[in-house]
Amino acid sequence: MSSGMSLLDLSQVNPWILIASTVVVVVLFWRIRRRIKRPAKQKSFTSEYFKGLNYLLNDEQDKALDIFVKLVESDWEIIDTHFALGRIFRKNGEIDKAIKIHQGLIARPSLPEKYKTRVLLELGFDYLGAGWFDRAEGLFKEVLSLDSGSTVTRKNLILIYQQEKDWHKAIDVAVDLFGDDPGGIGPMISQYYCELAEQAKAKGDIKQLENYANQALRYDASSVRASIMLAQQCAARKEYAQAIRYYEQIELQDADFIPEIIDALVDCYELSGQTGKLLDYLSSLVERQQQIDLIESYASVLERYQGTQAVIDFLRKKIEQQPSIKGMYQLLSYYEKKMPVCEAIVTDLKNSLQAMQVNHAEYKCHRCGFESNTLYWLCPSCHHWGQIKPSGVVTQEYHHAG
Ligand SMILES: [Zn+2]
Known about the structure:
There is one protein chain. By secondary structure, the protein is an all-alpha fold. The model is unreliable at 1-8 and 393-402 (pLDDT under 50). The chain contains 20 helices and three strands. The longest helix has 21 residues, at 182-202. The protein has helices at 15-34, 39-57, 61-71, 79-91, 95-106, 113-130, 133-146, 151-163, 167-178, 182-202, 206-219, 224-236, 240-254, 258-271, 275-288, 292-306, 308-321, 325-338, 343-356, 396-399; strands at residues 363-365, 371-372, 388-390. It has four domains: 1-153, Serine Threonine Protein Phosphatase 5, Tetratricopeptide repeat, CATH 1.25.40; 206-289, Alpha Horseshoe (Serine Threonine Protein Phosphatase 5, Tetratricopeptide repeat); 301-357, no CATH class; 360-402, Single Sheet (Rubrerythrin, domain 2). Strands 2-1-3 form a three-stranded antiparallel β-sheet, with no helix packed on it. Strand 1 and strand 2 (371-372) form a beta hairpin. Residues 365, 367-368, 370, 379, 381-382, 384, 387 line the site of zinc ion.
């Protein structure tokens, strides 16, 4: 060992090594206080611990780990240090070192039974971190066989099955957790059923698709995704009344998704010849929900059935209540259709208004801000379900009027 160790310049040591060393030092002194009555044994214990600590500070982690893993056999109560070290290594992406600690522990025949599940669990986390899902799955199953009530193990098994897109297995494990946390687990199970429904749809098995979508609604009554799938099937069978019911319930499930389905809903009304009802519905929807896309949809339907002047009247009233750039842009476009105005002026005005609008991606994750032009039900960035929604749903511009 380097004799210059005591002169070590701490500013040159990696911050994580300092954290790891702090953990070791804290445990060391705690042990010294507890072992004060056994000075002889204490001396060799302490010197070994310092040796390990020096290796750690000298960035010779392999040697440090060898010492720490051996040291634990003389006192299993220091095992928490090893768990703490393992977590620090894992957090810093040094999975191989975390694995070394935990494998070293599990290989000790003297490992007390009460620590076994904890070590297996930590090793499982290491394997997960390394992307070895098969091995992690095997370990988590072993933990469950030793401790059938382990929620954290089940949650990690679910993550593995989710990663492997094994939705049946994910559901099997998740239903065990549903009773304790229906609000947290229900929407996940619901998304797994929606995934199965998508698979059934790809195979053309519509009956199965509807079974799964209904199961999804059973576990999460506000599953927009299930409602959309069921509505689409009803519309395909020309069962428009039922399709309209499914689409309209989305306003109660999560109004942010209305722009996603509004065109399909309009189609259902029109194909079933209920244009009067459609206008009534849209007009009340626009009153209830302050969404710019809805105003656009309503304007185009209004123009189809009542003409351009009706749209202009509607937009003028709307802008009076809630001024917005996008609203002005639309109004100008309808004015342009209605009356001959100087083309150059209109083009200039429209260009300026367009430039003043912020361009958003079509969809945005409400949790992490990830933007995309595809609707992902599982956010590729933060891995949360159902957080990606049509962006610009609530129009900030329309809120300016207060
Ligand atoms: Zn996200």
